[in-house]
Each structure stands twice: as structure tokens, then as C-alpha cells.
Amino acid sequence: xxxxxxxxxxxxxxxxxxxxxxxxxxxxxxxxxxxxxxxxxxxxxxxxxxxxxxxxxxxxxxxxxxxxxxxxxxxxxxxxxxxxxxxxxxxxxxxxxxxxxxxxxxxxxxxxxxxxxxxxxxxxxxxxxxxxxxxxxxxxxxxxxxxxxxxxxxxxxxxxxxxxxxxxxxxxxxxxxxxxxxxxxxxxxxxxxxxxxxxxxxxxxxxxxxxxxxxxxxxxxxxxxxxxxxxxxxxxxxxxxxxxxxxxxxxxxxxxxxxxxxxxxxxxxxxxxxxxxxxxxxxxxxxxxxxxxxxxxxxxxxxxxxxxxxxxxxxxxxxxxxxxxxxxxxxxxxxxxxxxxxxxxxxxxxxxxxxxxxxxxxxxxxxxxxxxxxxxxxxxxxxxxxxxxxxxxxxxxxxxxxxxxxxxxxxxxxxxxxxxxxxxxxxxxxxxxxxxxxxxxxxxxxxxxxxxxxxxxxxxxxxxxxxxxxxxxxxxxxxxxxxxxxxxxxxxxxxxxxxxxxxxxxxxxxxxxxxxxxxxxxxxxxxxxxxxxxxxxxxxxxxxxxxxxxxxxxxxxxxxxxxxxxxxxxxxxxxxxxxxxxxxxxxxxxxxxxxxxxxxxxxxxxxxxxxxxxxxxxxxxxxxxxxxxxxxxxxxxx
Length: 638
What we know:
40% of the residues lie in helices and 14% in strands. By secondary structure, it is α/β, with parallel strands linked by helices.
């Protein structure tokens, strides 16, 4: 569908870089922010993407680029999905219609995309560490530039943020940390820090002092206006000493993150403090997710990452009910198993909605734990629960489990604890791109002793293999992709499948295709045309050695197919097993190559990597054409 050009407003059309922005007068900034918000809403409605968080950072983005000399001064956004206003103001306005599409601009900061994207931040809680490194590098090189980390309150729940604060408080660099406090991560915020920030904002002493001051000064308008300008500093006098001051920061705030008349002078004062080497600065800014769009303000979770929609109508239910996703299969299984086994507890690192745990929290609140954006803690917390006889299920994206690798090895696997890891977003993830792709879990899990790895081929097997994993007395990961499966009907019971066993799905001759996970469907289509055998392996670890031996004995070549990295992946496991068994025959490994794969439509990306039916067929023909015994009359896969 050809899209009409977005309406362009008078001020925004003149801004092709922050240098253009800095030529505006202060009086022009509020109308520019309004135009930017309107453009942002219309743009995301046409492409899909992160909306609520970006509507909340419009004024903050304008103020930061207006006050600081970007890109010489470094801005590091955390998490990076709140950077659409930043992209629009830094020369990418005309490319917003390509957002998160193949060949288009990324939904996150990306160093190769713009000099204004100083650090890639698609995973949370890294900004303070990176900005501190930039600030100290400038000091070492004798440069005068500043570094600014803009971190959300959800990202502040991660231990890495506090490790960086601990280091930064004693370092001598020109560093500003801006806490973008919108009382909202992706799922509702949790934890003691969030409660502390809420109490700080709603404290009776602060509120009373502010209200009394207003009443007294309203009788003297000049003094009232002076007090308003002085308010940003006065707040520091009436708010109790903060956690951040204990880390060695000069704490300023909280201030209204949508009030440019507060933001700009405050940031100008902080810039002066940085110029005078007054130590690290901490600015607490309060914003609202979905600001300026009533529907998103009312339901920021629903509008966190919507698809294409009509802004005048809002989100609507599709005319045709969508197919059941693997995430929904997991969520239903979790509730059913929790009903059957009181030992089950569910854990998520701040991804309640994304991991399909909303219903589980509603039905089993005492057994539901959202630990915040703290993957390391989530895994070791699960280990502690398992030590006491409970059966933890950690629902976590494949890409986020990478952040807890030491805990996975040392705290779970080494102690052989029965923790189930439900790995969502395995394989390619589409619009979020390389930063969120679950390309490496097979490789990084199968090398760990005591760990088992299951790869369901469809929705039914996902439910069954989750049950199998739950029955084990050691750690097991079940990996499944984003989105819907083949539409296979799911059993209603909790019966598992045989542990470590695959199945032969198609009997052929010459070549056997060993499929791991949901690529079984294109492998079957290719096998039908090629006359090849096709096995649904189901388990990467333990491999079904009996099935592998039989396939190796009765075929002249093997082909492994997986939606994961070839290096160290399931195909590598097959080669290792064959070598250990003393079996020698050619093996073709098909999977994700040794490169980061860009964002785009998942089906298109799989086809580009030769992992659709046509690609599998073509690769097998090219390598093993002389071994094929296709039946007459079969058509090639198109």
C-alpha cells in the first residue's frame, strides 16, 4: 500500500539537525514540541513501533538537544526504544516511514545509522556505564565535551545501573544522569526503588512546603515568578537527602519533564556545573507515557508497541481473530500446570505482557514474581526457590537470558537445580532486529552440563515439551519463537513427550533432513519435493542418538536445519555426536550465518537466509543433488 506523505508543519520542516533547533528562540520550542508530537503519532500509526514511551520524551529530547552541543556532547538513551523524537530531530525525519522495516532505520539507537546515536541501547540499564566511559575518555584526551545518560525508572531497577552509579560517584568526568521517571517500564513497575521514587514525589513535607510558598507569594507577582524560576533549586532544599546523593551525585529535581520552561534553565545550569568540573550531576525528570495522546495516556501498556492503527480511532480488534501464539500457549500451560502442581512458581524480569503471564498473575498472585529488569537476579532467585523444593519457571526472552549467563551456569546448572526456562523470541524476531534476536541460545545452552534444550516444532509440542521439562529434576530450556505457529491443535491435558526423543516424520531415501524446532514445516515441504527423509528432532540436548544412528545408517547424507546460529548450534551437536559414534558421512548445516541479521519481516529474513522451503530445497540440491531420489511428478517448492 502506497502511503501519502505525512503532513509537515512549519517549524518541524526547518529542523534537519540539532544545530537548526538551537537557532530557534525559546518561545518557538513549545510549538515545535507540539508539532513533533503530532508528527510522531502519525508516523508510528503508519509503521507500528514503540509509541507511549516516545510521546513521553518529546520535550525532554527537545531540551537536551537545545542545551547541549550534540553530537559533540554525547547523549546515551536507555532504553533505546524512546528515541523516535531524537531520530526525527537528528536528520531522519524523512526516513521515519521506513522505521523497523527491512532496509529502513532501526527502532533503537544505532552507531552506524547516525553520529547522534552514540551508543546502541536496545537492552536496558547500560547507559550510565557507557556514558561514564565516554566522559572519562574525554577527560583522558583533554576534550571538554559532556556525556549525558537518559535512563528510565524501569531501567534503574537493574543492578548494572547501580554498579555504574557506584563507579561514577567517585570518578571525575563531565557526566549527567537524567532519570526519566514515568512510573512505568514496559510492564507495571515493581520493587522498592519504584516505591521510593513515588514516595519522594508524593511526600507530604514537599507538597506542603510547595503549596504554602505558592499561597504566600501569589500576593506579590514578581516574587512569585522569581520563585518559579528558582523552584528547581528550591526542591533540593525541601526534599530529603536522596539515594543518589549517597552515590556522590549532585541531585536536582524532581522537575516536570513536559515543561520546557523548567527543563531548559535547569539543564543550562547543569551544563554550567559540568563546565566547572563540579562532579557528576543527577537530574530527576518526571514524564508521562503517552503524553498528548489521550488513548495512550489511559493505556500506555496497550500503546507500548502497537502495530499500524488509525490515531483518530485508536487500537481496534482485528476482524479475523489472530492465530494462537507460542507466548499464549505458554501462558495457558503455565496456568494449567500451576493448577495441577502447587510447587510451580512463575518468574519474569519485567516482561509480564510480553511473556504471556497476565492471566497467571491474576489467578496465582502469591506464586507470581516480577523482579524488574534484573535478569541476573531472576535466575539466582529461581535457584533459591528450587533449593527449597519449589519448581520455578523463568519466562524470559532468549536475548535477555544472555544477560544472566554466569547465574545460569554457576547458580542453576552447577547445582543441578530443576528450573524451567521458557525461552520466548527464539530465532529471528522481525522488526526489533539483531539486538532482540534469539540466535544464540542453542549454542550457549548446550555446552552447559546438566542443561537440556528442547525445540518444539508447533503449538502442541510446545505445550507437551513444557510439561516434559517441568517433570525433570534438572534445568531444562524450552525455546519457541515469536508469533503464531502452524495452527496445530493443542492437547488439553498436561501429558509430556518422551524426554530426549525425536520422531521420523517422513520416510525418504538418500538424504535425511534433521529439523530442530518450527523449521520442521518448511523442511517437510522441501523433503516432499526432494524425496528426502525428514526427522523432527525435538531435542538439541540430549540428542536422540538412536534416531541419529538409524538415519546415518540408512542415508548417504544428512542435513540439519535450525533457526539459530550455525556456529555451536544443533548442527554442530549432530556432527559431534557422529564423530563420537565413529560415523562418517557428509552433513550440510543450515541455520543463521555468522553475522548479525537486520530488522525486517521474519518470513522475508528467513527466505533471505535460505531457511524457507525453497531455500532448503535449493541448498540440498546444490550440495547433494546426485544423492536425491525424488518421486516422479513432484513439483519444486516455490
